[in-house]
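The authors assume throughout that readers already know how a fold can be written as discrete tokens. Each protein is reduced to its one-letter sequence and a matching series of backbone shape codes. I therefore recommend that a typical entry be quoted early in the introduction. For illustration, here is how one protein appears when written out as sequence plus structure tokens:
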Amino acid sequence: MNIRAMQYLVTLADLRHFSKAAERCFVSQPTLSTQIRKLEEELDVQLVERTPRKVMLTRVGEQVVERCRRILDEVEAMRSLARQACDPESGLLRLGIFPTLAPYLLPHVIPTIRRRFPRLTLRLFEEKTEHILDMLAQGQLDAGILALPVGTERLVTRTLFEEPFVVAMPEGHPLSRLQTLTLADLENQELLLLEDGHCLREHALEVCQMTGAHENLDFHATSMETLRQMVAANTGITLMPTLSVKPPVAPTENLVTRTFSGHPPRRTIAMVWRKSSAMNPFLEQTADIFSAIDPALLQP
């Protein structure tokens, strides 16, 4: 029984697809399948039900996966302990952050981290929330910066700040005549949204439900910058996080933003890491830096 086979089994349990699991583990599908079969032979029990269209775990397979998760957590905790034993501030920090926040938050925080921990090797991974959670579970990341909720009890969750949304629209849009908006102003408006997999899409859909707005079903953007340019091209309006319209982001021609009066819709940003992590004290220090960004940056 080896650690790699356990990693393959846990990834397969998460994705329920051999090809996707193999891609996530950076191996060929036959390699992943062979390792899982060897694990089944060693345990003398079937762990996976293989059907043409889907993958299911047997009942004992589900139980084995949970034990594998705990073993992998402990293995990564030992590795982290070894990395940080000599000097936590001169080790490696692998940090995941999602795409609709990374380019807008990191320029404000990374210089401070460099000054505070000059010997630290910081390795950044810009990934969607689901992938960050998978990488954390597999020990491929030390921490992640995500929008709440994340829905897992195996993680420490440290709230960093709340980021309000603004409405982005072309300069000639009827709503641009207003200085501030209420949620009621979005009733019957059609919003451009990101494609599935982005947490910002889920937040925008929640606003749609609250206000009576609806999404534009003919277009789903792959990135925040695509949304920005489509709005500037008079395709529609959208919700944008406040940091995405603050310097050093340059103004976009034919795009204006309007804030919400009262208590605007917002997303809560948090830093998360495994409860078993040996880096807990150092990660708390790092979270302090992220939470200490200039409050003016979060004012719409």
Notes: The chain has nine helices and twelve strands.
